[in-house]
């Protein structure tokens, strides 16, 4: 159905000339995260976003197909993990025997911090087309975020 609607081809015509293709992995990560957060399902987001990301990569820069698909997968899992209506979040809070929204509110700061790290990694990967540079950038961002969180925890 997605192929018949040509959603990916339509979006690629909107993207071409308006958005740098090197930004697409990070954009897809954030969009997939927002979609999975809103719907509470990573698998539904996979089904919608993976064909679109594949078509976008084919129409813009085929070398970015793996980073784009990885960004969709990572963003979907991130959004599902944070969503208060996700089955896994509900099961986690039930299994821990804690109030559901307490569980959600305590996991959000850590998940958003790691989403920031992932976004940095996807940006570096998109701009350099190098897994090593993307990994190094994400590792540096991780260390900075951990240092920042440790500093915040020590403040009175």
UniProtKB/TrEMBL annotation:
<feature type="transmembrane region" description="Helical">
    <location>
        <begin position="21"/>
        <end position="44"/>
    </location>
</feature>
<dbReference type="InterPro" id="IPR018461">
    <property type="entry name" value="Na/H_Antiport_NhaC-like_C"/>
</dbReference>
<feature type="transmembrane region" description="Helical">
    <location>
        <begin position="133"/>
        <end position="153"/>
    </location>
</feature>
<feature type="transmembrane region" description="Helical">
    <location>
        <begin position="108"/>
        <end position="127"/>
    </location>
</feature>
<dbReference type="Pfam" id="PF03553">
    <property type="entry name" value="Na_H_antiporter"/>
</dbReference>
<feature type="transmembrane region" description="Helical">
    <location>
        <begin position="56"/>
        <end position="78"/>
    </location>
</feature>
<keyword id="KW-1133">Transmembrane helix</keyword>
<dbReference type="GO" id="GO:0005886">
    <property type="term" value="C:plasma membrane"/>
</dbReference>
<feature type="domain" description="Na+/H+ antiporter NhaC-like C-terminal">
    <location>
        <begin position="2"/>
        <end position="127"/>
    </location>
</feature>
<keyword id="KW-0812">Transmembrane</keyword>
<protein>
    <submittedName>
        <fullName>Na+/H+ antiporter</fullName>
    </submittedName>
</protein>
<keyword id="KW-1003">Cell membrane</keyword>
<keyword id="KW-0472">Membrane</keyword>
């Amino acid at each position: 159905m997605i192929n018949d609607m040509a959603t990916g081809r339509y979006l690629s015509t909107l993207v071409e000339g308006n958005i740098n293709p090197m930004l697409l992995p990070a954009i897809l990560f954030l969009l997939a995260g927002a979609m999975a957060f809103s719907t509470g399902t990573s698998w539904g987001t996979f089904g919608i976003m993976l064909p679109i990301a594949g078509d976008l990569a084919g129409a813009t820069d085929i070398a970015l197909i793996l980073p784009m698909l990885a960004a969709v997968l990572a963003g979907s899992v991130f959004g599902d993990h944070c969503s208060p209506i996700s089955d896994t979040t509900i099961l986690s809070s039930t299994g821990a025997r804690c109030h559901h929204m307490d569980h959600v509110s305590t996991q959000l700061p850590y998940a958003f911090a790691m989403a920031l790290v992932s976004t940095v990694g996807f940006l570096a990967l998109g701009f350099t087309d190098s897994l090593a540079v993307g990994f190094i950038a994400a590792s540096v961002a991780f260390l900075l975020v951990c240092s920042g969180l440790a500093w915040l925890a020590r403040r009175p």
